[in-house]
Design goal:
Layout (H helix, E strand, L loop, with lengths): L3 H20 L4 E2 L3 E2 L7 E3 L5 E8 L2 E8 L6 E5 L12 E4 L5 E5 L4 E4 L9 E4 L5 E4 L5 E4 L7 E3 L2 E3 L4 E5 L7 E8 L5 E5 L11 E2 L8 E4 L4 E5 L5 E7 L8 E9 L5 E9 L6 E7 L15 E4 L7 E4 L3 E3 L9 E3 L11 H4 E7 L1 E2 L6 E4 L2 H9 L6 E5 L2 E5 L6 E3 L6 E7 L19 H21 L5 H15 L8 H16 L18
């Protein structure tokens, strides 16, 4: 008769064998390879829900892990995420000597995708979304779970000193603009990437200062902090969806491209190729709360029901109108400010309910009007924020701008020329001129700008110059709506200015893409 200890030993050995068999299902052997130009582009997990391999990235391909779904896959990990894309003739080879190499025939190069400290004999894409390598003792010697990019999956940890870095977008796994750090002081904190990680740069934290634990997401969707004994000591979020006999639920916690940390559930029903993706929790409800959502010299605005957007402050234009989050630059030359009569050369534009980040170089108690004048007469002043009787002057660049209707503040900006900023009305640009004298000054200035710009690119003859000059004057004076030859001149100017890339200074032309309550 078999003794109890022997039966227990047999049960233990069988359970180990079963776990080893589960972990090594769909084993990838030495000599295996992938290529974007063949049908074999990825290695699947046994359930077919996760894949490791090539995915489209920019003008080529990158290597990563994704959760399969329709209409698009969900990227959860990228190898060497900031490397340039590779072409379609690249190959991913699991070599006979146990290395995973990315080979580019186009460049004639090869490089390790993963640095292995031991020789690997096999690999596997697990059903958890973890890609692992085994040695000849079937021990895991490397796993993607130890090197997260922007996402945690069920069973994955974020230990002290580790961080999640957002991706550029859902389809571009390159490093984005925000990161979430598991700090040594026990706090989980989100910052903009281009910051000093000072307390004033943080825009969200778990408020777990002093806790000694690791951030963990379990398979049931519990996102929390575990101590060394494996016990959950603080819950951050808890998923509400549960797997059943007819469906499988996979959770992921992602620092999204917009800087918000979110928990998602992916529900896969039997016989349904289209999983249901549901947001379970969000660290922030307003994208404008993310510091750095908009770049320098711009501000974030959201009405709460739609996504946030970025807008230039008065006197600034977008670095790239197609990528508004990159921020704005001054639309006028301020280099010789100290040689000018400031009250004649500059004016003040104002924005209500607006806040800024950073540190002011001057904070004084004064009236609202005095605050405005103090910035106008100070060449160092890019903006002055008036709040509760205190005027705070700031140098450029302006950071962390945000419109917040709960703030009773006024922001004063020193702008070039005769700039009279008002909230825009949808439609054509608005020209605001106070007097004929100013109009003559502006037209004279515009004449010089136009002539210099067009002459410098060699596209302007004398007749064309005359037409552009006259039509520009008519356009500025509001005659562009007239019919006949005058309208033709105006339209000629509009199209010509677009062709040569002529830009108007914001101090005399109001653009409709600026939103700021004045």
């Amino acid at each position: 008769m078999t003794s109890v200890p022997a039966m227990l030993l047999l049960f233990f050995l069988l359970s180990v064998a079963v776990r080893a068999q589960e972990n090594q299902s769909n084993l990838i052997g030495l000599g295996s390879s992938l290529s974007p130009s063949t049908h074999h582009t990825s290695w699947l997990s046994s359930t077919g829900l996760f894949a490791f391999g090539f995915y489209p990235h920019g003008y080529g391909f990158a290597v990563g892990i994704w959760l399969i779904g329709q209409p698009q896959n969900t990227l959860v990990w990228t190898a060497n995420r900031d490397d340039p894309p590779v072409s379609s003739n690249a190959t991913l080879d699991f070599t006979k000597d146990g290395q995973l190499l990315l080979r580019s025939k186009q460049l004639g190069q090869e490089k390790p995708v993963i640095e292995l400290r031991e020789i690997a004999v096999s690999a596997s894409m697990l059903d958890s979304g973890n890609f692992v390598f085994y040695n000849n003792n079937s021990r895991v010697i490397w796993q993607s779970f130890d090197f997260p990019t922007d996402t945690l999956l069920g069973g994955q940890n974020l230990s002290s000193g580790d961080k999640l870095i957002s991706s550029v977008s859902t389809s571009n796994g390159s490093s984005g603009r925000f990161y979430l750090a598991m700090q040594s002081d026990g706090n989980l904190v989100a910052y903009p990437v281009n910051s000093t990680a000072a307390p004033e740069d943080a825009y969200w934290s778990s408020n777990t200062l002093g806790i000694s634990a690791t951030l963990n997401l379990n398979h049931r969707g519990l996102l929390g902090f575990r101590n060394s004994a494996g016990r959950n000591v603080r819950t951050v979020a808890n998923g509400t969806s549960y797997s059943g006999e007819s469906e499988t639920i996979i959770y992921r916690a992602t620092l999204d491209a917009d800087g918000v940390f979110r928990l998602y559930s992916h529900s896969f029903r039997i016989g349904d190729d289209n999983p249901t993706v549901s947001p379970e929790w969000s660290s922030l409800q307003n994208q404008c709360e993310v510091k750095g959502f908009c770049g320098f010299n711009s501000f974030c605005s959201s009405n709460g029901s739609t996504k946030a957007d970025c807008f230039c402050f008065p006197g600034f234009v977008f670095v790239n109108p197609d990528m508004r989050f990159l921020g704005c630059y001054r639309s006028f030359n301020d280099e010789d400010c100290r040689r000018k009569e400031l009250s004649l050369s500059y004016s003040i534009a104002s924005c209500n309910n607006t806040t800024l980040g950073g540190f002011p170089y001057s904070m004084l108690s004064m009236s609202n009007e005095d605050c405005s004048n103090s910035c106008l007469k100070d060449c160092d002043c890019g903006a002055a924020l008036y709040s509760n009787g205190v005027c705070s002057r700031r140098k450029l660049p302006l950071t962390y701008g945000r419109v917040n209707q709960n703030e009773t503040t006024t922001l004063y900006l020193r702008v070039g020329g005769d700039y009279n900023y008002k909230p825009p009305i949808p439609g054509d640009p608005i020209v605001m001129i106070e007097s004929k004298k100013k109009l003559i000054q502006i037209l004279a200035c515009a004449n010089g700008v136009i002539m210099h710009r067009l002459k410098s690119i060699g596209t302007l003859g004398r007749m064309e110059a005359f037409i552009v000059l006259v039509s520009s004057c008519l356009y500025v004076m509001g005659f562009s709506c007239l019919s006949g030859p005058l309208n033709w001149l105006s339209e000629t100017f509009r199209s010509g200015a677009q062709d040569v890339g002529l830009l108007f200074d914001h101090h005399w032309v109001q653009h409709d893409d600026e939103l700021c309550d004045g």
